[in-house]
Amino acid sequence: MPVRRPVRTALTVAAVALLAATASACGDAGELQSAGPTQTADSPAKLWPDLRPASSPAYPYAVSTRETVKGLTVPGDDIRRIDPVDIVAAELRAHPADYGSKGAYHATAERMKDCRAGGDRARCPLLKPYYRDLTGDGRPDLTLGFRLYPTNQTAVRVYTVEGHHLVQVLADNDAITGVELAGRALVERSPADISGYEYRTTWEWDPRQRAMVFSRDEYLHIGGGRARHRTPSPSPSPAASAS
User: Which of 21, 82, 102, 243 is deepest in the core (most CB within 10 A)?
Assistant: First the structure.
């Protein structure tokens, strides 16, 4: 990840300096100098080998979503030629239980009217669309976000084009503070329940499932609050999730 590059650079510089100092000391003495006894390496210790496996996951988490958007075609297979407002409107029609008058996100449907010409843009829940090739086919894909009123959640969607059809390859709802695109991955940042921490969820394109799959969930200290010196466990890779 790019944020780790400065750390790696600093470690490299320190290592080079250490080697230079060692070489200089060896040159002064005319012979190699002992660095002292080497610490014995400990192999990983497997705890509770007879522990019975869990019968179900700790919590449900959809590793991938894929759905063809009904009622929309893609002129010239160019995703930029589809109005993002029409894409969200298609989702509202396809999921009345969520966006209907009694749905959890009913206010989103009401406010989407303000995304059209003549509406109050300040009330429009649709966020700025971003276009980037996430699937590796050389064509731009669409990353779309819109607020889920009356909650504090945000919908994050990714769309691609296949055979003149618009296909949704990621659908996630969460209380989000930021979203980043890195290569063919999408990273969501969400507030944690402890001050000074945040959750970071990574979705990556999987060519076998032809969808953005859940690949990593991290719990990170971002400053402020009190550090807990906790290293998050790595989540399964997209290949492992697919299998």
Answer: 82
